Amino acid sequence: MMTDAIRRQVCVGAGVAATVLVDGTVAATWSVTRADGTATLTVRPLRPLTGAGRDAVEAEGAALLAFAHPDADPRITEQRPGCDPP
Fold first, then answer.
1. Alpha-carbon distance 51 to 57, whole Å?
2. What is the mean pLDDT of the chain?
3. What are phi and psi of 62, to 5 degrees?
4. Domains in the chain and their CATH numbers?
């Protein structure tokens, strides 16, 4: 579930960004890049992530990197809400 404001950030043109759910609602987008033996998960919150929500996102992100890139050094970064991707 997502608000119209979040939908406009997630659904751009014909594409849909990879999303993070917290308590059943879209809370962030994410992407993975790999370089020099490191896999980096970048989480871009669409609203502030706090407490248990942030901890759950980090735990799931670590599990994703371990599954998708088991031979890489994992790194998780979080952009401040509203920042454009690099």
1. 10
2. 89
3. -65, -40
4. 4-78 (3.30.70)
